[in-house]
Amino acid sequence: MFLVGITFFDLLISIIYLSIILALVNRAMTKMNFIGKKYFLPFIYFKFLCTILFVLLHSYIYKGGDTFLYFAGAKFILGQLINNPENIFNIYFSDYNQISNLLYDSNFIAHYFFRANDVFFMSKIISIFNFITGNNYLASNILYSMLCSYGVWKLYETLCKLYPSIYKYFAVGVLFYPTIGIWGSGILKDPLTLAAVGLIFYGFYNISIGYKLIYSFFLIILSFFLCFILKPYILYTFVPIMLIWLQSKYRNRIKNIFLKIIITPLILIIFFIGGFYFLKTVSEGAGKYSLDNVKSVAEGFHNWHTFLAETRDQSGYSLGEVEYTPIGILTKAPEAFFVTYFRPFIFTDVRNFATVFEAIQSFILLIVTIYVFFKVGLINFFKNLYRNDEIKVFLLFAIIFGIAVGITSYNFGALSRYKIPGLPFYTSFLAILFKVGYLDKKIPHEQIQT
């Protein structure tokens, strides 16, 4: 209904904007001062190619999707502002029930989808890019992707500051991971929420070292807001994990053993109470994504994605009968985690090109996981899990988030998008574990031998 094609003029406009972006990137690189900065320009090129692929997939293979709904909604909003500019505050700072004085145009049907807050919000955001590009779908996708890339880059930059010696591993697992690249690009909710996750992590890191506090608090609040509107369930898992990580950083600064024993419980209590009330507040305003509605939302996702798999030849999976109780979810947790990160299987789950693409990546990630655990060893893994804060919290978030999306998606296409906030932390967990559990033990031994 809202399908958009690509013309030569679209390509021309996009190349002009890409040239401007590259000029800004080259200028920004001169101000960077960390070991991974050499990947900034390749990362921008990679994101550009991923955005092109995203647009081609949705325009000529999928021939539909939420991306076109958001774009049509943005065109409708922009049309309202052009014909009725005094209505700008009514549209941008109101919800669906409050907007008025709307004018009929060719995209008017998109207005009926504004009842969903996330659709209305995304349409508002994309309308800004449409204004810049003159409603050019390809160019708007590129600009939107580049903006969202900031959060991913800040995530990578923070990881490099924590473990500079393995910056190349982080580049592969965060910047150039194909699934993150494609589904973290283009006009969808996922690139923006992924960027928000990266900025929250970057902000918490800055707070832990007392750096750029005002700017960091601003980024965290903005990112919280974006996730709250678009995908509040991300906050349910990621914020508690970040609070655990932050309190461990503060605790590690205390050198006096006696003082650490006294203060640690106090820090834990403060963060626990703060996290509890934060989640309670988020849940109360999250609408259908509130904690009270977890079961109905999960069943809704399950039924819809199962329907798509059965009727539209999309690649689906099943975990069998799921009871949405703590015990019921726990029994399905290992399989749900495995599905999220290591499926689809090439020979049994593949039905289309997109699934083949995902299956190859999942198989490689499984092989890398086995290799890392083989090199580190099971006992050494548990030792480092206990000692290393990043290994602990990254794995915990990857497990919880992986189980949550694996137990609700039931469709490999949807799962590819939903899992991208967890992927950078799972791959980073593997990289850090490989460093502290294998490389750090191997290198000194080799130096002694020489």
Write up what this structure looks like.
- With 450 residues, this protein is mostly helical.
- It folds into 3 domains: 8-183, no CATH class; 188-284; 287-450, no CATH class.
- Helix content is 74%, strand content 0%.
- The chain has helices at 8-29, 40-61, 66-83, 88-92, 117-133, 137-162, 167-175, 178-183, 189-209, 213-230, 233-253, 257-284, 294-311, 326-342, 353-376, 378-387, 389-406, 412-418, 423-449.
- Helix 6 runs antiparallel to helix 7, helix 7 (167-175) runs antiparallel to helix 19 (423-449) and helix 9 (189-209) packs parallel to helix 11.
Assign a percent range to the helix content: over 70%
Number of DSSP strand runs? 0
Q: Would you identify the regions where 5 or more consecutive residues have pLDDT less than 50? A: 282-292, 445-450
Radius of gyration: 23 Å
Helix count equals 19
Shape: globular
Structural class: mainly alpha
Q: Could you say how many structural domains there are in total?
A: 3
Distance between the termini: 68 Å
Order of helices and strands: HHHHHHHHHHHHHHHHHHH
Instruction: Give the quaternary arrangement of the chains.
Output: single chain
- Strand content is under 5%
Mean pLDDT: 82
